[in-house]
Amino acid sequence: MSAVVAAAPRRLALDRLGILIAGLAVIAACLPLAAFRANRIVAAEGKTILSALPGWEAGLLVLVLAAGIGVALFRTAAPWRLAAGFAVLALLCIAVGRAATYLTPAGDKLARVSPGAGFWLLLLAFALLAADGMSRLRLGPWCRVAALAGVAAGLSLLLLCGLWRDLSILREYANRADSFWREAATHAALALGSLAAATLAGIPAGIACHRHPGLRSVALNVLNAVQTIPSIALFGLLIAPLAWVAANVPGAAALGVSGIGAAPAMVALFAYSLLPVVANTVAGLDAVPAAADEAARGMGMTDRQRLVTVQLPLAFPVILAGIRIVLVQNIGLATVAALIGGGGFGVFVFQGIGQTAMDLVLLGAAPTVALAFAAAVVLDAAVELSSGWRGRRD
Q1: Cβ neighbours of residue 112 closer than 8 Å, sequence gap 6 or more
Q2: Tens digit of each residue's pLDDT (9 = 90 or more) over 328-345
Q3: What strand order describes the sheet that includes 34-37?
Q4: Is 214 left (phi over 0), alpha (psi -120 to 50) or beta?
Q5: Following CA atoms 366, 369, 371, 374 in sequence, which dihedral angle do they give, to the nearest 10 degrees?
Q6: What pTM, to 2 d.p., does this model score?
Q7: SS3 159
Q8: Nearest CA to 380 among 58, 164, 52, 141?
Q9: What is the radius of gyration, based on Cα positions, of the chain?
């Protein structure tokens, strides 16, 4: 009996991270779930849960939030934390769509309803709870990718069924659907194109730096200096030299080289991408076990054979980690390219800032964040899988 009594306090003990999550959730529940505007540029009127949703829907959301806060607050099992986090997140996404429909007057094409501060804080709180559950379960790489695919499928279903059609961001999208996908393709081309160029140039440069210590210090110092230049400044610095190249080098203008546009954006992103690729290539090759290299040498392999069959495969997880850094970095930096006519999702961000239309800003920012997050999850899984393969190879 005494053992049971002693065990009870441990089962009801508070969770340290859960206290933070519960605190955020309680504060967020008191803030507006949605913001109503009579048109896209007037000041917003905040609507709390009780005023943004019909009675029973508001009550259901409050009950589910209370249950989620309880699961977060105490030291509950990891599967319960994961399930509670995803359940609340799913209901929140449904609720904000229902709030937009409920608050928008019938037939009104000018009104805008956007997620409020409470929604974003609740999203953060229960995303932390779901991430905490996944961390405690120690999910493998394939499980994490499957979870990402499930989230993507759920969001796609919400979009396809029209539940979010009255949200302001979807109304902005409806007015710019053609340009949205054109800028999405440009954004992807800038991020992936600069990554491909940096990988093709950075890996050989990293190999050269690994073999020649004198070159290593010079190259890494120069690339470190490039990283210290603010992105907008670097984009601006490239305008004059590329404009000169376009005017004076035959065929350059025909290839798309110009002082503004995609060319300086691509060059700047390429310059920012080199350091992680080169540095991780050097670090990966330095980490190759000397015994493996000596064994390959003893088998009569040439330097090139040892590089291709032993050193690069063993260094691959570290190199891939550098590529992950570059891709996530470039997805974000490509947004700034819109300032020099490079296109991408930054077009909507800066148009929205200029027009004081935050829903238009969100149209550019939300897919950028989603792409960066998805790229990080997928490449993290790839790094872990390649590390496991390397361990088996060792």
Answers
A1: 36, 37, 39, 40, 168, 171, 359
A2: 999 999 998 888 888 899
A3: 45-47, 34-37, 112-115
A4: alpha
A5: -120
A6: 0.86
A7: helix
A8: 141
A9: 26
pLDDT tens-digit readout, 286-301 = 888 888 878 878 787 8
CA nearest to 137, candidates 76, 88, 89, 82 = 82
Token look-up 């064994």 returns 295
Q: How many whole angstroms separate alpha carbon 133 and alpha carbon 320? A: 27
Q: How far apart are CA 367 and CA 176, in angstroms?
A: 14
The closest alpha carbon to 317, from 239, 374, 392, belongs to 392
What DSSP string describes 196-265? HHHHHHHHHHHHHHHH-HHHHHHHHHHHHHHHTS-HHHHHHHTHHHHHHHHHHSTTTGGGT--SSSHHHH
Q: Which of 384, 225, 211, 198 lies closest to 282 in space, CA to CA?
A: 211
7 burial (CB, 10 Å; 0-12 / 13-18 / 19+) is exposed
